[in-house]
Automatic annotation (TrEMBL), chains A, B:
Gene3D superfamilies to which the protein is assigned, alphabetical: Cyclophilin-like
Any Pfam family the entry gives: Pro_isomerase
Keywords: Isomerase, Signal
Source taxon at top rank: Bacteria
SUPFAM superfamilies, A to Z: Cyclophilin-like
Protein name: Peptidylprolyl isomerase
Organism lineage string: Bacteria, Pseudomonadati, Pseudomonadota, Alphaproteobacteria, Sphingomonadales
Annotated PPIase cyclophilin-type domain residues: 79-247
GO terms assigned for molecular function: peptidyl-prolyl cis-trans isomerase activity
Length: 321, 321
């Protein structure tokens, strides 16, 4: 087999003494992430993690999916609903009931009860129609707005006036006069988790969720709420057989993947611990610049740009020293 | 289960009398494709198709993947090599040996012979390092260049100065003076098939191929040759278990997916027949505009733009009248 893109990927994911030696003076995205000081990493609160355990696969292997939930100000009631549903163990015994290639897998109430919807817990929020966050510019000096939300020069966006990262999340921006942010919203990338809904004005409760398993469906931005992203176990969703019914829903219950349990990370005996590379750190700035301008032993032509969904925010398990 | 994005997808993929009625005056990408006249569809020559038959899956179901090969001027010797390899039945008995989530699956010589490379057929081309096509502007009037390769206004590109479609394929452009195309190249999207290679100046023979199974890895453009795209059976590649060895290579031969055969479409008793929506047709122009500005019963906020990999070229089996 050819080393290929195998080589490229090895360079990205694995510490390779050979490659590190070859281009000691040519940083790669991986070398920058590996070299980022511990102080540039931000711990993720286990209360912001959702741990979904699927039934073991055909070989009896465990399947665990970990989702990081969207923080304020974009959480807007949906994430609180998801926490309520998780605490009520509402998803336990339900299923992944839909899978569409290059689109989404979706889970929740797969009509296990023969078409009778499972009752929702009380106290769920009715969520506003839009996931926008509009800036109250007068509330803070304009320079702060620019510093906080300034678009990254490497990012060229087809779906928003510009794009950036806020607190570790990819964000679309509407901008006035080239400088002032008017509106912000989270965007759909590979691995993003969103809230399934019926036709507008329905906005979904958060009980039915999907994960993106293909090219970023950015046309969904601002139309459906993004409430998180898969940070571990993505392969347990992306490799599920595609459904052959209408809209990729499985035709038989036997094809559904049972959900054993969904729990908040802080409810587990051993809370999962992850950290992300601060998107306001110098390390992330260097990572973005090098990612947009690849120049190393494998890449000969740098693109000069990158899209916001291809600049993956580095996330890793916390290792004890 | 919520209709969700199920509804959106149904609207995109299925003829839905309800939705069609609701927005009779609001075209969707699907309604435009469905309404495109037969004359806007271009037949794909079966000689440009590669039919890969994988071993049946665990349930004994057949797995067939059909790949459309890249035409001139971008084929540049690689595609001829692939045709030579297919005619020699070189891939028969080899395997899919690598799968990396949100990256690629890769096939060819998975060292079935215990590390001894399978000999290649004679007569393979040595392929030039770059997949660029530089324009000989003097050869045709400047207005022809503009008409032929003018970027689509809906497409905003992060990786090239602009992007368009040539003969049904997504293409990156380098442009001078805002009008004159200097250089063109095919781009990596979901489902694109490329030529695995070792470190440059190696350019690969075409014997080891990969298909993109995640967000468009556009940083590979101009660095690795794109030689085709999967047009049917993509799920047989995208759902393969991810490899757990270095760079996603499977750790054991038992995990490989055997390739039963790879044949050119015109060598089969029943040649596969497909057609694509002409990317220079009025139908495609309308499809692009509506895709970039969704406004229907599901989508409330149009993005105002789209990226070249999200504007999928419609391809369908030819149906006899």
């Amino acid at each position: 087999m050819a080393a290929l893109a195998a080589t490229a990927l090895a360079a990205m994911l694995l510490p390779s003494p050979l490659i590190a030696q070859e281009k000691a003076e040519k940083p790669t995205p991986a070398s920058i992430v590996q070299g980022a000081p511990k102080t540039d990493w931000v711990a993720i609160d286990p209360a912001d993690l959702l741990v979904m355990t699927l039934a073991p696969d055909a070989d009896g292997k465990d399947r665990e999916v970990i989702i990081q939930l969207m923080p304020a100000p974009f959480s807007k009631g949906w994430v609180e609903n998801i926490q309520t549903l998780a605490k009520a163990h509402w998803w336990d015994g339900l299923s992944v009931y839909r899978s569409v290639d290059n689109w989404v897998v979706q889970w929740g109430d797969g009509e296990e009860e023969g078409g009778t919807p499972k009752p929702l817990p009380t106290g769920l929020n009715v969520v506003p129609e839009s996931q926008y966050v509009d800036e109250t510019v007068a509330a803070k000096p304009e320079e702060d707005v620019i510093v906080l939300w300034h678009p990254r020069p490497e990012l060229v966006d087809a779906y928003a006036e510009s794009a950036t990262f806020n607190d570790g999340w990819p964000i679309g921006l509407q901008i006035a006069d080239g400088t002032r942010v008017l509106r912000r919203w989270p965007v759909h990338c590979y691995g993003s988790v969103g809230v399934a809904r019926d036709l507008s004005p329905d906005t979904g409760t958060g009980a039915e969720l999907y994960a993106v398993i293909g090219h970023a469906p950015r046309q969904l931005d601002r139309n459906i709420a993004v409430v998180g992203r898969v940070i571990m176990g993505m392969q347990h969703l992306s490799t599920l057989p595609r459904g052959t019914g209408d809209a990729g829903v499985y035709e038989t219950l036997a094809e559904h993947t049972p959900i054993v349990s969904v729990r908040l990370g802080n409810e587990l005996a051993e809370a999962p611990r992850f950290e992300y590379l601060s998107t306001s750190s110098d390390s992330f700035a260097a990572y973005a610049e090098v990612s947009a301008n690849r120049d190393d032993s494998f890449y000969k032509v740098g693109a000069g740009g990158i899209d916001v969904c291809n600049l993956r925010v580095p996330i890793r398990p916390v290792k004890d020293d």
